[in-house]
């Protein structure tokens, strides 16, 4: 009887402590969800605002489709290659990050999974709709993820940026080679490998080669500086092009709803599950927690906005792909907060 009397308060204290711990965990998860939701919505809302401005300008004939075509060509052939080249040259330091090869390999694994899962989901219509594979496998790895990282991890944003650029090192060549191949119709008598040799792809490989072969000191700053200057114009112009294209495209969501749901299922559901499983099994979060969070964000990101620029520039299925991408951006407003919160619960 005495022992029971002594243990009862202890049991009650432990139960109360467990309840408080559970309550604090729930509060933390709610806080993570709200902060992530706000950051994601802010990034997507910026695109929405630009789309509205672009729509008004196009409607008033201040900006015409010919202007957008010219801006797209300049961006793809000049500005974006400059941005890619300067970012890799200035930010990629393999000697300071010994595990850096795992980051682009992980990026490629994520892309490969998206391609495989997409091919299975769309196997019956793959020949006619190969552009859907680009949407299931190639995410907005920079323009969406970097603003999110700055808002979510401001005290570690410099480290986050390095991880992100190394991740993009693998994404960019694939996006501007395989991505371009998937969204653009193949021309008659055109060699298949020529579809992969785009200016952004060449810029990526050139910069990576210079860094890995230690030739960077032999590239004078007087060359890198103007390239960097041109590259800084890419983000605002590319965002305006995206808004103009989204505003000018005649969406047909009703006829492409099942394609969009299939892409959402692969890109925003299956891919995050695959990523979480691999990260947890490898224990990446224990040694590099911020790197693991980057992979979670990348896995739940909407398709790359560059796909819309590509499909317009190379005369692909613009209406179809734009409709799918738009629905994915709407869905990722919920998908990103959900998977970040789920990862936080799993790794606590």
Binned strand content: under 5%
Number of domains: 1
Average pLDDT value?
A: 82
Which residues form runs of ≥5 with pLDDT under 50? Answer: none
> What's the tally of helices?
14
Q: Which CATH architecture is right?
A: Up-down Bundle
Structural class: mainly alpha
**Secondary-structure element order, N to C:** HHHHHHHHHHHHHH
Helix percent reads over 70%
Detailed description of the structure:
- The protein is mostly helical and 348 residues long.
- The chain has one domain: Up-down Bundle (Na+/H+ antiporter like fold), CATH 1.20.1530.
- It has helices at 2-59, 65-91, 102-121, 131-137, 145-152, 157-183, 199-212, 221-231, 234-248, 257-282, 284-287, 289-299, 306-313, 318-347.
- The protein is globular and about 80 Å long.
- The two termini are 39 Å apart.
Q: In a nutshell, what does this entry contain?
A:
This protein has 348 residues and is an all-alpha fold. The protein is 76% helix and 0% strand. It contains 14 helices and no strands.
What's the helix and strand layout?
Layout: H1 2-59, H2 65-91, H3 102-121, H4 131-137, H5 145-152, H6 157-183, H7 199-212, H8 221-231, H9 234-248, H10 257-282, H11 284-287, H12 289-299, H13 306-313, H14 318-347
